[in-house]
# Entry
Amino acid sequence: MKVGFAGLGRMGIHMARNLVRAGHVMTVWNRTSDKAEAFGRDCGCAVAATPRSLSAASDVVVTMLADDASSEAVHLGPDGLFAGTARTLIEMGTMSPDHIRTLAAAAPTGATVIDAPVSGATQAAEAAELMIMAGCTETIAAPLMPLFDAMGRQVICLGRPGAGSVMKLAVNSLIHGLNQTLAEAMTLAEAAGIAPEAAFDAIEASAAAAPMLKYRRPLYLDEAAHDVTFTVSLARKDMEVTAALARSLGTRMPQGLATLQTLQAAEAAGFAPRDMAAMLAYMRETKT
# Structure
């Protein structure tokens, strides 16, 4: 299977590397060509000049892009993926369900678009332990399992296009809510004189513990000493898309809206490029 990969960002670069390690014949493309060229040299794979040429060189194209706008730019237009010949296109970034439906409608005759966003931070991407939420049936996913297995530990098939996107937004709303609640709980404990490390020990040992708290502990306790894994601006984007989805479905998300408002305030205060663990620092600075 000839595989194309577009989007060598914090997550994508690990996912693409794991596909190479699994033995797939790979071609890569990235908006910043220097990054793609460096990846090609390091991993011994071809580099495409445009998304169209990436699609022309591939049976399946995997994209890991930041948002609807970047995905639209890569798929559509005379040099986009849809202008090439790939028959299966798997969007693994966090997108709105409307965008997935738009891509599916715009795809060339005979081409299939599958939304398969992932849960897990950069550590999980590097270790090929992502959880993949596929907007398709198990039958459709079956021939793609060698790709999914190279990148993740579990695939959950949700039956129809767009369902993967919906589920990813639901999961991320929980993650961002937990991130905010942790920041508030830590700030409360610290205000009472409890050391951050001791407070985190107690939270991590409690019934409120979640896997993300354990692997993100170093970032919460010393954000500046670690690389950014997921920015505040991306968290805000996720929650804006989720809030719009909730409105369209007629469901209430009062806690989600409170999380969104706090992320928007943090972004306005200059926290946009920082890791989402910086919400703890933001709450410390605005506790009064």
